[in-house]
Specification:
Distance between the termini of chain A: 57 Å
GO molecular function (chain A): tRNA binding; U3 snoRNA binding
Strand content of chain B: 35-45%
Largest sheet of chain B: 7 strands, antiparallel
Strand order of the largest sheet of chain B: 10-11-12-13-14-15-16
Organism (chain A): Huiozyma naganishii (strain ATCC MYA-139 / BCRC 22969 / CBS 8797 / KCTC 17520 / NBRC 10181 / NCYC 3082 / Yp74L-3)
Oligomer: heterodimer
GO cellular component, one term (chain B): rDNA heterochromatin
Largest interface: A-B, 76 and 76 residues
Shape of chain B: globular
Subcellular location (chain B): Nucleus, Nucleolus
Protein name (chain A): U3 small nucleolar RNA-associated protein 8
Number of strands of chain B: 56
Structural class of chain B: mainly beta
């Protein structure tokens, strides 16, 4: 399955509030097999939902409108009131007033079914409660804690104003501390599978840190974001090096390792999507959706498909392809010499300025040609190895674009000779080949040129042309081109899509060609090969009886010829073989033996 | 993702490889081609290579010393060109008759008439003694010695004359009183020599000459005046042929002498003929009597090697049969030593009482290069003591500088050589690439060699195994006459799969000649499992051998060749084989079937045929890139079907069309594909489907390399995403000279990380699955371009320096240092040691006083036995630990412990 992002579906509406709503999701809801979703919405409620089969509210507890929820896990939550009083709600009967706000809490059932809650306070105090009783308290040497991330229920990553530290939760021993990383540089972080991901809004960089060492292990720039600076941006990590990123109402699924956008979705009905959490296994993300009307906010689940984690999913989806302005000077490809010294043929072109000149002279074929051939040092009228330095695909594409735009290719109209040259260039841009055949059909010279030398012609057009054309020579060229450029499978596939009438016409053309055989129109092997592909693709039974009979007769005749040829060959080879020298050594290094040729030559076979 | 990269600097060094040379094989008139010699104590065997002198210990069968030409300034200047070779080796310093020190020194004689005295034991401390003989244009081939007298045999290179006869000169060599200069005198000329040989004791010279009437004459001449008395015997070759047999006379082949031998007592002369007959002539008959002749008939083709043993009781002969034949002359009994690896070019009885036979073989199945193997056999039981060969690459075209030995049946030898050299000179482009693959774990090199496979250890600089991978007559014994028409199967391609556990070979079997079906080749794909542990102890098995697991006949259908094989990444990765019509097959080892099975198939799909096919798997095994002619397709690995969608949003069908046929594709990093065409070397970004950069290959590649052979000169480091590229150039001029560049690029080819020039043609470059690239040139030398390179890899000279570095710190050295140190004071001793350590840092060439030097060296040598090990003893070994196999490491450790 390839990667995809589905449309969001709403679980609950979040009431409009004056300030930004703080919504917290309990960690256990994000594990892979959880079907419940615990949500704490400040000043509103603590609710539990069942997600499958349909989202349903299971229970809910209202929260007074003066209380902001600062931490929430598994039914345990901490609040902060407007008048700066703090409280931790362990359960219905245990509410513990505190001196400082709880930055994050972790609540889990241990083996004897009792619930242990660990709360980390803003002032650096860590408290543990068991069954409503405080069993442990320790003050950490950290001040002004801003963010706490619990890792697998065993470790805590604590980001303070001046430092960042990793603690082991059992005894709260410090494992690692870094003063170079503090909240200023380390805000907006997410951790996943031993890596910390941080997004730098200023530079559009994802920074990746190793959790155990707090060392930076990589920086990934997201270039296409620079165009939309200032739009609200949120992200969540959904897999190793896989990040779901929301920018206004667009969501991107990024592969940071390869540097590609695996999937992209734009929700036109929404104003903004704010990602708040992602499932550990990457199967869904939870978001707050802002509707087009102000403050209409809903809690949504967005289902994700991460794909196969392989390069297959990323093919053609690099960050660069999402850039709005793709063509910049740096993207120019020039053919550089391998060795620095002694290369006289080295050439580089200023494509931008040449293109400018060409565009200016677009209306005048003679002037266009003069610029084209002079600036690019082209000597001959067709592509030669000397022209291998013209390699930039963008430039070729633009130049062809200019020509196609300015000339109509009517029977009598003039066109620049540069176009004929470009048609012989092996790197003729693939995106300009569509409708090229029909466009130049009025000028037989160009039409033939396109068929013979232009690469990347669309197969369906080639087939259509070859089925309707009456000219023997062009028909041969077309069939040659098709067989050369495309594989049997793709030809068959494309033929199935073609109108039946054309196909029967083609068969008739091939047979007719044979029947009124004058010297010039002997059915070529290419046509015969194409015929076999035609029959393979449409099936014999799709043809009517009359045509089938004709076809059978035609093929019988061909088989007879083939048999005759084989006999003749055998005869020839038998003769030549006898004459060859015995004891020859077929070494590829030394060729001493002379082949003995028969004294006669067979030139033409009358059939 | 960009991870912070440590900046690395690439270095090049030529550290390994090289092939044993038979210097006198270059001149067809010499029968004694091999110049290897054994030391006086019968312990060490000295073999010249084209880039070094190697000393092997006969008992341990190990190389105990290498004298690399490149490591010594003087030797480097002497052996610059390929023309200068070691043509003789004499024990001891021959200029110092009083103290020759045969147990430590050796005198090399070069073809240009240079004499160099080197140490073959211990470290080369001082500048080697050097003499230049005034031989003019002559090439020196041999220095004879008897009781302190020396005679030099030199040959005039007359360019006007045909290449079959030469003028010999035998001159006295005398050293001045101080031993500082050498001069030649009393030159005797032998004109028009067709063939020459000398007795084992080097007292008698036997020549086959053209006399003035163009009659061939045999001449036996004593070299020195000795106990046997002077001798100069001449008789026409005609006298050896019975007059009455006119039929035989008509056939020149029966009268074409291919080799000669004379015994030590000057009583017997043996002549080997191209027809295979050996004629034994008794020299003791009086002139007026008929010559006593004996005919020894066994050989079916030219006799190439002949020698009498010490007491003339045996005649040993060899030739194209790959069999060594022992003729007991008193009884007419014949004994054989069959199944040698190559044809016998030279046999010599060497050592005290002819204790050993030194045999030189040539593996003629490789027609592109002279692959010599030097064997040392124990004369008593004919067991092999040493078997010495270099890497055995098979080049795509024949290289210029060697000649094939004479054969009556195989007519393609001999005369064509000169023409070929001229042809090579004229053509600018020649494809001398060779096929090599590297084992990712053991780092051993695999070189397919005709019907067999050579496993070569780059770091040990030794051949590990030579294994036959195909069935052929040649494997079992030499061919007899009619069988020469049967062409042996050929290994065309091989790949090591997975972490070195499997080997896939592709071979072509040829049907017999002159049949209607002669062109119906059989294509065979074979899957080999690495030899198991149990086999290593059994005979014939070993670490480097492979066992056949699965054999597939005509895997892509009858007469459909496999043009590319690529190994898929991963532990259980399979193999993708590609044919010349676009068909792909994926093979994988099936545990249940316990066999390799065809797992996926993509039918031949194109409407034409091409040999320009290249495939590569993406690192996560999700995609297969398939280049066919000028098209590049992307195939989904799971469905094994081409991806047809417009994945790159360019209106196409997801495949690329290049400007010319694609020579090779390689994956540089996860997202960058390297595409080499006839004109460009490009990198393609798979994420955008756009070219990232392009390099102009046209001037260097156009028309040079056959289809996929360019891939042998491009290698990708998949760990650090680097690319190494070799550019070979044919330098214009009258000499046949090549030069090559090795360029290391980053993954997108935008930055050059290194650019090196190598003064020879490079045939192959490959990544060693670590940090380095290993390359092979047409002189069979191996080099390395890498970041962890230091020239000490497998380098004995410097290893000894490594040992020396241990000494000064340990106090127990002085305690253990015994009698030898007694005459020097304790503090002197320490100072000397310090001075030595310092010197070694400066390559140890600057100490003035020889006596002091020797004393110090003695101290070192003496102290060796009692030295203690400290924590630094092994530290140097770990510098390259990732490249070193267990065996090599063990050797290194043993060396320190010694």
């Amino acid at each position: 399955m390839s990667a995809s992002i589905s449309q969001p579906f709403t679980i609950a509406n979040v009431p409009r509030q004056a300030s930004q709503t703080k919504v917290l999701i309990s960690q256990h809801s994000l594990t892979s097999n959880a079907n419940t979703l615990d949500v704490a919405v400040s000043k509103y409620s603590i609710s539990q939902y069942i997600i499958n089969p349909t989202p349903k509210l299971v229970n809910s507890k209202a929260i007074p409108s003066n209380l902001t929820v600062t931490a929430f896990d598994n039914g345990v939550y901490a609040t902060q009131s407007n008048n700066k009083s703090f409280c931790l709600y362990l359960d219905e009967s245990h509410q513990i007033p505190l001196k400082s706000a709880v930055v994050n809490c972790l609540s889990e059932k241990i083996h004897d079914e009792s619930v242990v809650t660990t709360a980390i306070l803003q002032d650096g105090t860590v408290q543990k409660y068991k069954g409503g009783e405080q069993v442990f308290a320790k003050h950490l040497p950290l001040k002004d804690i801003k963010q706490v991330e619990f890792i697998d229920g065993q470790y805590a990553l604590i980001v303070a104003a001046q430092s960042t530290a990793l603690y082991e939760l059992e005894n709260l021993t410090e494992l690692r501390v870094s003063t170079t990383l503090h909240f200023e540089q380390f805000k907006q972080i997410r951790q996943h599978l031993g890596k910390i991901y941080q997004f730098d809004l200023a530079t559009n960089d994802f920074k990746i840190f190793e959790l155990t060492t707090l060392n930076e292990i990589g920086v990934v720039n997201i270039p296409f974001l620079s165009a939309s600076k200032g739009a609200p941006l949120t992200f969540t990590v959904v897999g190793d090096s896989r990040v779901c990123l929301a920018l206004a109402n667009e969501i991107y699924l990024l592969d940071l390792h390869l540097g590609s956008v695996l999937s992209h979705n734009k929700f036109a009905q929404l104003k903004q999507v704010e990602l708040i959490a992602g499932a550990r296994d990457g199967s869904f993300a939870i978001a707050l959706s802002h509707g087009p009307q102000d403050n209409a906010v809903s809690l949504d689940i967005i289902n994700l498909e991460l794909g196969s984690r392989s390069i297959k999913d990323s093919l053609g989806k690099g960050f660069a392809t999402f850039m709005k302005e793709r063509r910049s000077a740096e993207s120019q490809v020039t053919l550089r010499p391998i060795l620095d010294a002694g290369d006289k043929t080295k050439r580089s072109f200023d494509y931008a300025s040449i293109l400018k000149k060409l565009t200016a002279a677009a209306k005048d074929p003679a002037k266009f040609d003069q610029i084209f051939f002079k600036e690019l040092y082209i000597v001959q009228e067709c592509y030669t190895e000397g022209d291998r330095f013209i390699i930039d695909q963008n430039f070729l594409s633009e130049t062809v674009g200019v020509i196609l735009k300015n000339y109509s290719f009517e029977p009598s109209s003039k066109y620049p000779a540069a176009f004929t040259y470009l048609l012989t260039h092996p790197l003729f841009p693939a995106d300009k080949t569509r409708h090229l055949l029909s466009k130049v059909k009025q000028i037989p010279r160009l039409y033939k040129q396109v068929i013979v030398t232009c690469p990347n012609l669309p197969l369906d057009e080639l087939l259509t042309e070859s089925f309707v054309i009456e000219n023997n020579e062009l028909s041969l060229d077309l069939s040659l081109k098709i067989l050369q450029d495309y594989t049997k499978d793709s030809i068959k596939k494309e033929m199935k899509a073609l109108p039946r009438v054309n196909v029967t016409n083609f068969i008739k053309f091939v047979i007719g060609n044979y029947n009124n055989s004058d010297e010039s129109s002997v059915a070529t092997p290419q046509l015969f090969q194409l015929l076999s592909l035609v029959i393979d693709s449409i099936g014999l039974f799709a043809l009517d009886g009359e045509l089938l009979t004709e076809l059978a007769g035609y093929i019988d005749n061909m088989v007879k010829i083939a048999e005759m040829n084989t006999e003749l060959w055998n005869l020839l080879e038998f003769r030549t073989n006898k004459a060859s020298v015995a004891g020859s050594n077929r070494s590829k290094y030394v060729k001493t033996q002379k082949k003995v040729f028969p004294p006669y030559l067979v030139d033409h076979l009358e059939i | 993702m960009k991870y912070s990269a440590v900046s690395q600097e690439y270095k090049l060094s030529l550290v390994s490889g090289g092939k044993p040379v038979l210097p006198r094989a270059a001149n067809p008139t010499f029968v004694d081609r091999n110049v290897s010699c054994i030391t006086g104590d019968q312990q060490n065997y000295i073999v010249p290579f084209n880039n070094q002198i190697k000393v092997y210990n006969v008992n341990t069968r190990q190389c105990v010393k290498t004298l690399k030409f490149a490591n010594n300034e003087l030797l480097a200047t002497i052996f610059t060109g390929r023309d200068t070779v070691v043509t003789d080796i004499l024990l001891g310093d021959i200029s110092q008759p009083a103290e020759r020190q045969e147990d430590r020194l050796v005198t090399l004689v070069t073809s240009r008439g240079q004499l160099v005295v080197l140490k073959y034991v211990g470290k080369q401390l001082e500048q080697p003694r050097f003499f230049q003989l005034a031989t003019g244009e002559d090439t020196v081939y041999k220095v004879f010695e008897r009781e302190g007298k020396f005679k030099v045999l030199s040959v005039t290179q007359d360019r006007q004359k045909s290449k079959t006869s030469f003028d010999y000169h035998l001159s006295d060599l005398q050293f001045s009183a101080g031993g500082d200069a050498a001069e030649l005198s009393n030159s005797v000329e032998f004109q028009d020599v067709l063939l020459s040989s000398w007795s084992t004791a080097e007292t008698t010279l036997v020549l086959l000459q053209n006399d003035k009437e163009h009659q061939r004459t045999v001449r036996v001449k004593s070299i020195f005046d000795d106990d046997l008395g002077p001798l100069d015997l001449q008789f026409p070759l005609e006298s050896l042929f019975p007059d009455n047999n006119s039929v035989q006379q008509a056939q020149t082949i029966n009268r074409f002498v291919t080799c000669l031998a004379v015994d030590n007592s000057r009583s017997q002369l043996a002549l080997g003929f191209a027809s295979g007959v050996i004629t034994l002539v008794s020299l003791t008959t009086k002139p007026d009597q008929d010559m006593h002749l004996r005919y020894l008939k066994w050989h079916i083709d030219s006799v190439l090697a002949l020698v009498f043993n010490d007491d003339s009781s045996y005649l040993i002969s060899g030739g194209w049969e790959k069999v060594l034949s022992f003729w007991q002359l008193s009884t007419n009994m014949q004994q054989f030593l069959p199944r040698l690896n190559g044809i016998v070019l030279d046999v010599q009885a060497i050592g005290k009482n002819s204790q050993f036979y030194s045999v030189a073989l040539q593996m003629t199945e490789n027609e592109s290069n002279a692959d010599y193997q030097v064997l040392l056999l124990n004369a008593a039981d004919l067991t092999s003591k040493l078997s010495i060969s270099g890497p055995l690459p098979v080049f795509d075209t024949k290289i210029a500088d060697f000649t094939q030995p004479v054969s009556t049946i195989n007519l393609n030898s001999g005369a064509a050589e000169r023409k070929y050299r001229k042809k090579l000179l004229k053509t600018k482009n020649s494809d001398f690439t060779a096929f090599v693959d590297i084992n990712p774990v053991t780092k051993q090199l695999y070189l397919p060699h005709g019907t067999n496979l050579q496993t070569y250890d780059f770091y040990k600089n030794e051949q590990v195994a030579l294994q036959y991978l195909t069935d052929s007559i040649q494997n079992h014994m030499g061919k007899v006459r009619n069988e020469l028409n049967v062409k042996d199967p050929q290994i065309r391609n091989l790949k090591v799969v997975g972490p070195g556990d499997w080997l896939v070979t592709y071979e072509v079997d040829y049907p017999p000649e002159d049949l209607l079906s002669s062109n119906d080749l059989t294509h065979v794909l074979k899957f080999w499992a690495r030899g198991t542990q149990a086999d290593e102890t059994s005979a014939g098995g070993g670490a480097g051998t492979w066992e056949l697991k699965t054999k597939v006949l005509n895997p892509h259908g009858i007469s459909s060749p496999i043009v590319d094989i690529s190994a898929c990444p991963g532990e259980n990765g399979g193999v993708i084989s590609a044919d010349n019509n676009g068909g792909l097959k994926y093979w994988e080892f099936d545990e249940r079937e316990n066999n390799w099975c065809l797992k996926k198939i993509n039918m031949p799909n194109f409407n034409h045929f091409s040999n320009s096919v290249s495939t590569v798997c993406s690192r996560d095994l999700s995609l297969v890139f398939h280049a066919f002619d000028d098209k590049l397709q992307i195939i989904d690995f799971d469905s094994f079907k081409k991806i047809d969608d417009d994945i790159f949003n360019n209106g196409g069908t997801g495949d690329f069309t290049m400007d010319s046929e694609i020579k090779i594709i390689k994956l540089v990093s996860e997202t960058v594909l390297l595409v080499a065409t006839e004109t460009n070397l490009m990198t393609l970004d798979l994420l955008s489907g756009k070219l990232v950069s392009a390099l102009d290959m046209y001037p260097y590649v156009h028309g040079n390399y056959k289809n996929s052979h360019l891939g042998r000169l491009i290698s990708c480091d998949s760990k650090s995403d680097k690319v190494a590229l070799v550019i070979n150039e044919h330098l214009p001029g009258k000499e046949l000279k090549y030069r090559s560049h090795i360029i290391v690029f980053n993954s997108t080819l935008t930055a050059k990380l290194g650019d090196f020039v190598h003064p020879d043609y490079i045939s192959w470059i490959g990544w060693n699955h670590d940090t380095d690239f290993i390359f092979l040139d047409i002189s069979s030398r191996l080099g390395v371009v890498g970041t962890t390179v230091n020239t000490e890899i497998a380098d004995e000279i410097n290893r000894e320096g490594l040992l020396d570095a241990l000494k000064p710190a340990s106090s127990s050295v002085s305690a253990n240092a015994d009698a030898q140190t007694q005459d020097s004071e304790d503090h002197d001793y320490l100072q000397q040691l310090r001075a030595m350590t310092l010197k070694k840092g400066e390559n140890g060439l600057s100490l003035a006083d020889d006596d002091e030097e020797d004393a110090a060296q003695e101290i070192i040598d003496g102290a060796k036995t009692g030295q203690t090990l400290n924590m630094n003893s092994f530290s140097n070994m770990f510098e390259n630990i990732q490249n070193v196999t267990m065996g090599t490491l063990f050797d290194n450790v043993m060396q320190v412990l010694q």
